[in-house]
Amino acid sequence: MKRNLAISAASVTCCLSLLLSGCGAGSGSASGGADKAKTGESVKPAAAASTSSNEKVKLTFWDENAGPDRTPFLQELIKRFQEKNPNITVEYVGIPSTSNKQKYDVAIASNDTPDIGGIMVPWISDFAAKGALLPLDDFYGKWSDKDKLSKGLIDYNKSLAPDKKLYQLPTTMYLDVFWYRTDWIKDAGLNAPTTWKDFFTDAEKLTDASKNRYGYSIRGAGGSIVQLTNAMYAYSGIEHYFGSDGKSTVADPKNVEFLKKYVGLYKKNTPTSDITNAYKEMVATFDTGTAAMIQHNFGSFNNHKQSIDGKFAATILPKSDSGKRITAPTANGYGIFKNTKHPNEAWQFLAFLLSADSQTYWNQNIGQMPTNSDALTSDYVKNSQHIQEGAKVMADKDTVVLDLPVYLPDYNNIMTQQLEPNFQKVMNGSMTPESFLSGWAAAMDKAKADYDKSIKK
Q1: Does 345 share its domain with 285?
Q2: What domain range is 150 assigned to?
Q3: Cα separation of 306 and 288, whole Å?
Q4: Which of 17, 240, 254, 271 is the most buried (most CB within 10 A)?
Q5: Tally of structural domains, the chain
Q6: What is the CATH number of the domain that holds 371?
Q7: Mean pLDDT per segment of 10 residues, for the chain of length 457 residues?
Q8: Is 367 left (phi over 0), alpha (psi -120 to 50) or beta?
C-alpha cells in the first residue's frame, strides 16, 4: 500500500500548491460564486448539471453528517440545483454522524439505499466490496470539468476499491489541527502549540480548575480514534501504519509514550466530562471558554468564528522529534448507489455539487478546503488562516502523509466497535495504554491478513 501513500501525498500537495501560488486550472470564476453565495443569490452550476428531459424524477440524497452547521447549506445547494433542473426533485435525508455507518449498513443489507449520498473515505472499500455503489468512471470520464479535480485524488480513491474503479468523488478536504485561544496564550506569556513541548506545557499552564478553565479537551467518545491516531503518529514520527515486516506499528514504544502523556492530561488538565464528549461537546468546551485548546480539523472553523472570532487560531499538529511532520489529510465526498433508478439524474446532481461555485459556497460555510481547482482561487480560501497554514505544511519537504489502511473492509468497525470503548477504559484507568495499543495492533494485523488473503483468491 505504499503506492497509495505516494498518490495521496501527491494529490494533497498538488491541491494545496494552488493556494500558495494563487493560480488555478480554470477561469477563476469561483470568487464571483463566493460573493453570490453570501447573499443567497443563485450561482451558475457546472454545465453537466443541466438536463433537457421533461421527465419528473425524484432523487433521495443522504447527508452522512447532518446538523445545524451543515444541513442548511446542503439544502440551499439542493434548492439551487432544483431551480436549474425543475424536473428533478431532491429529497434531503439528514443522518447524524453518530449513527451514519450503521444507517448505511442496514440500508445496504436490506437493499434500500438512497440514490446518492455522502461517502467517507474509510467506507469506499467496504461499500464497493459489497457491490452497493455505482462505478463512476464513465460519468467522470465524459465530464467536461474532470480536469478541475486532482488526478491524484481520483487515483487514490480508485486504489481503495477492490476492483480499482471510481466510486466516490471528493468535494472537500481537511487536515487535523490544534485550535487554540490566542488571547489566553498571549496573556499567559506562552508559546502557541507549534511543538509538542509547547502543547503539553500550554495544557498544564493554562489550567485553572477553580475557574473551570482547562488547558485542553480530549475527545473521549464518538470519533475519538481518528483524532488519537493522527496525534499519536504526529508525536512519534512513525511514517507507516504497517512496517516493512507487514505488522502494524500502532504499539510502537513511541506511540505508547505519547498515549501515556496524553491520557495523563485527563481530569488534571481537561474537564472530567471529556470521557463522554463527542464532537459537539468537545467543540463547546472550546467555544464557551472552558478549554484553551482542542484537536479537530478544518471543519469546526465556523463554530469557533461564530463564538470567539478574533481570539483563536490553528496550527497543524506539530513535528515529531525526528523532524518529520506526520499528517493524514482526508477528502470526503459523494457516491451514487447501484440501486438507483435514475443514474443520469443522480450524476447531474453530483456534478453540480462538484462545480466550483457549489464547492466554494459549501466549503466557505463549513470551513474546509475545496477540491475543485477554480474554487481554490476564491477569496474565502485566500483569506483563511487555517487553510493557508495547511498549504504551507503540505509544501514542506519534511511532511509525510500517513498511509492509513482505510482500504481494509474491517477498518471502520475496528475503530468504532473495539477501539472507541477501549479508549474510554484507558481514560478511566481500567485498561493500560500498552494493552490498548497491543489489542489495536492485533486487530489491524488480522484485518490486513484477511484482506491480503481475499485479494489473492
Answers
A1: no
A2: 2-174+330-398
A3: 11
A4: 271
A5: 2
A6: 3.40.190.10
A7: 44 54 38 34 36 79 94 98 98 94 96 97 92 98 93 88 95 95 98 98 97 98 96 98 96 98 98 96 97 96 94 97 94 96 98 97 93 90 90 87 91 94 98 98 97 82
A8: left
